[in-house]
Amino acid sequence: MKCAIGRVDGLEATPLPAVFADHDCRNNRLAWLGIGADGFLDAARVAIERHGADRVALVVGTSTASIGATEEAYRHLDAGRFPAHLRNPLLHTPHSLGLFLEAALRTRGPCLTVATACSSSAKIFAKAERLIRLGLADAAILAGVDTLCGSVLFGFNSLELISPEACRPFDAARRGISVGEAAGFALLEREGAASAPRLLGYGESSDAYHMSTPHPQGLGARMALVDALARAGLAPGDVDYINLHGTATVKNDAVEAALVADVFPPGTRASSTKGWTGHTLGAAGILETVVTLLAMERDLVPGMLNSTTPDPLCGPQLAFANETRAIRVALSNSFGFGGNNCTLVFGNPRTH
Questions:
Q1: Which pathway, metabolic or otherwise, does it act in (predicted)?
Q2: Which position among 23, 51, 215, 279 bears the catalytic label?
Q3: By CB atoms within 10 Å of each CB, which of 50, 143, 293, 312 scores lowest?
C-alpha cells in the first residue's frame, strides 16, 4: 500500500504524565498535546472554576479512540488472551478519550462520546448546544481526537479510497484521500466573551443510503445544510464561506460540488482544506471548524493545496487559490460513513 499520510512526530517517545499512566496510549497522548496548545487547558480550567465542575459537560468526538492500543494487544495474544501489561480496560473502549479527559480536567458534568465516523467532532457542537439549551450544563468542553492505526489505513485501502500521492480535493484528476491525525478543542458557553465567534446553528441528518458511499443526489448532505440554515435563520445568500468536507474521493467531491452549485449564489466562496491537513477522520469536524474560525478572523478564504484543474462539476463558488475576503457567516460541512452528516454555522463576532 502506497499512500501519503500526516503523522504527528514524537508521540511514541512522549508518554502521559505518570498520574495518567493508566490512560497512556497514542490517541490520549495526542489529546494531551492538543489540550495544552494555545492556552486552552488554562481556559478550560478557568471555565470549570467559574461554572462548577458539575455544570461543565465534556463532549468528545472520535472514530478510532484508542483502537491502536487494542490492535497492539491482539498482536501479542498470550494463550488467546491479552497479555497482562496490555489488558487495561480504560483503553479497550470507545470511551477511552472521554475517560482520560474527564480524569485530566476533573469535570463532573455529562461526559459523552460521539462516534459517527468522519462527522464525529462536528456533531459534538450540536450535542453541546442541546445540553446547554436544555439546562443540563452551562458550558461544554469539546474535543475531537483521532490517531492513525492499522484498522483505518488498511480499511480505507480495502475500499480503494486511498490516494498514492497527496490528495487533491475537487481536482479533475483526484485519486482519493490522504489520511492524517489531529486533536482539536473548543469551549462552548451560554454567554461567551463578546470577542468570541458565535455558533449560529447546526444541521444534522442520517440518510443511511450506503455504508461508505454518499447518496448520489446528496440527499443527506442537503438535509443537514437546509436544517443548519433554518436553525440559524439564514438564507444561502447570507453565507460568505463554506469549508467543504471535500475528501478528494471521486464520488464525495462530485456530490458536494453539485450541491453547492445548486444551493448557493455564484459569489459564495467554498473550499476544502484537506489538501493542507489530510483527512483526520473523527477529528476532521473540529479541525476544520478551527480553520473556518481562523479564516473569519483573518479575512482569508483558504485555497485548495495541490488542486489545480477544477472538476467540470465544480461551480463558480469553489476557490482554488487563497482569496482576501471579509467573512461574516461561514459554514463547515462534515459527512461521515453511513450517511451521518453535519453542517455547522458560525458568525463573525465583529458582525454579530
A1: Lipid metabolism
A2: 279
A3: 312
38 φ, ψ (degrees, to nearest 5): 55, 25
- Annotated active-site residue in 3, 25, 118, 167: 118
352 with 200: CB under 8 angstroms? yes
Q: How many CB atoms lie within 10 A of CB 46?
A: 12
Phi-psi category of residue 8: left, alpha or beta, with phi > 0 → left and psi -120 to 50 → alpha: beta
Q: Which domain holds residue 227?
A: 198-347
Q: Per-residue pLDDT for 245 more than 70? A: yes
> What is the CATH number for 275?
3.40.47.10
CA-nearest of 87, 80, 62, 85 to 151 is 62
> Do both 223 and 307 map to the same domain?
yes
Together in a domain, 224 and 322? yes
pLDDT at 151 over 90: no
In tens, the pLDDT along 78-122 reads 889 999 889 999 999 999 999 999 999 999 999 999 999 999 999
How high does pLDDT run on average in the chain? 93
The verdict on whether 342 is a catalytic residue reads: no
**Of the residues 25, 51, 245, 314, which is catalytic?**
245
Task: Single out the residue in 133, 165, 189 at which a domain terminates.
Answer: 189
* CB count in 10 Å sphere of residue 18: 7
Q: Would residue 118 show up in a list of annotated catalytic residues for this protein?
A: yes
| Catalytic annotation present for 92 | no
Beta bridge partners of 270: 242, 318
Q: What is the domain count for the chain?
A: 2
Q: How many CA atoms lie within 13 A of 90 on its CB side?
A: 16
Q: How far apart are CA 43 and CA 125, in angstroms?
A: 18
Q: Residue 323 and residue 300: Cα distance in Å, rounded?
A: 6
State the chain's maximal CA–CA distance in angstroms.
Answer: 64
Q: Which of 15, 38, 41 is nearest to 26 (CA)?
A: 15
